[in-house]
Hints:
The protein is of the alpha+beta class.
Amino acid sequence: MVAGEIRQKLIDIVGQDNVLESEIDRFGYSYDSSYVSLVSGNRPDVVVRPLTASEVSRVMAVAYEHAVPVTARGAASGRTGGSIPLSGGISLCLDRMTRIVELDEKNMMVTAEAGVRTIDLYNHCAAKGLFYPPDPASWKFSTIGGNVAENAGGMRAVKYGVTTNYVMGLEVVLADGTVLTLGGKAIKNVTGYDLKSLFTGSEGTLGIITRVTLRLITMPKKRGTLQVTFRSLDDGCATVHRMLQEGVVPAAAEIMDRVCLEAVARHKKTPLDAQVQASLVIEIDGDSDAELAAQAGRIEAVANQCNAVEVRLAGSQQESDEIWAVRRGLSSAVASLAPDRLGEDISVPRDAFPEVVRRIRAISEKYGLPIAVYGHAGDGNLHPSVLCNMGDPAEAERVHRAVDEIFAAALAVGGTLSGEHGIGITKRPYISRALGEAGVKALKAVKAALDPKGILNPGKIW
Ligand SMILES: Cc1cc2nc3c(=O)[nH]c(=O)nc-3n(C[C@H](O)[C@H](O)[C@H](O)COP(=O)(O)OP(=O)(O)OC[C@H]3O[C@@H](n4cnc5c(N)ncnc54)[C@H](O)[C@@H]3O)c2cc1C
């Protein structure tokens, strides 16, 4: 429990209504979208909902003075337990900071507070013909602050990159309440260390992001969607490689294996062709119908060379939306196949995608656990989902060993533990394996410099 004196200081800063302490509120802020099982220690002692950076600064100053842990929280859509307050203390929820401060059309940049939902930011810019490309599948609920804190990716990363490629400036509140302004609208900037990149992907362990300036690009005038089915996942991967080698860079190239397709078929109550083992959903974009038709033609030719079963070009926006709705809803459809699902987020060199999937198949057979595989084939980031019942202790043990081997498989082919979901709690046992002792030591040195009392999101990353 936070002491009465601290509690009163927090109320003085954000007002009584924005300091939540009831049992039900503390429970509500104790979990995120990972499958980390809850223990009572995960509860925050108090939830604080500031409205401005100045309030965040004052809250942090109080927390620093009294050495109270602070866990930042956006929409809690994180997959690795990042916003779970492992050590109690304050759950600092940025959900009231929802102002889009400025859309600078001349410089093609947008500045927004941390709690703005990703889709709201996208739509605000799109209304002026400007495009913010990073589109995590969670964009209808994730916050832009959470996206920066996790360096979120999305479907369009293959062509347009991830969040960090768009961050121009940040306002960050440090552990002791100091407000730091980093970067800005100058396109070239090598003044000192690139701290905005350090804070991007720092998972709430180095500071609280209160404001973000993002660069934008012009919105492509036309978009098209293709759905291609294959007899093997290898054929799907080969299609992506050849497409890229031939200079056709799709905006997105998402792959799903048979287990995923079965989940979707079950969900939509539609039959599934027995010969289909994998499917690719491809988004293309450009400035004219002719450009799109040329791209679609080249992709179809490549897919046919790679033994595609069927190539379908969406004939209308509605058809395209339906195809993408399946991909965006895939995570939930897969989750409905079993009592529990452990979704991972490994990232491998693109040419190792088929090999790592073969290894995952072998792991699935070895442990007798179904593993659904889908992901961003265009950039080698895949999400193997182990379908299981964690309530059965023997099965839970097999799941842990299977997950361990999935990470080992990713590292063995030159990959990494996380492409976009971060380390949080769920992957911290593996971080030394990925970075080595020297790598972890360097991270800890940065952490100690910026958070000497260790109050920012303690217990995460290592
Ligand atoms: C269905 C589903 C689909 C998803 N698809 C994708 C995807 O395609 N790509 C992808 O990258 N991710 C995806 N995710 C994961 C998740 O949505 C992202 O990590 C997202 O960026 C988290 O945003 P959030 O606002 O929910 O952050 P939270 O979950 O609340 O927090 C995530 C981490 O960031 C920290 N944090 C949050 N806000 C701040 C802040 N203002 N300052 C400092 N630290 C902060 C928290 O402490 C925590 O460590 C998906 C999740 C779900 C549930």
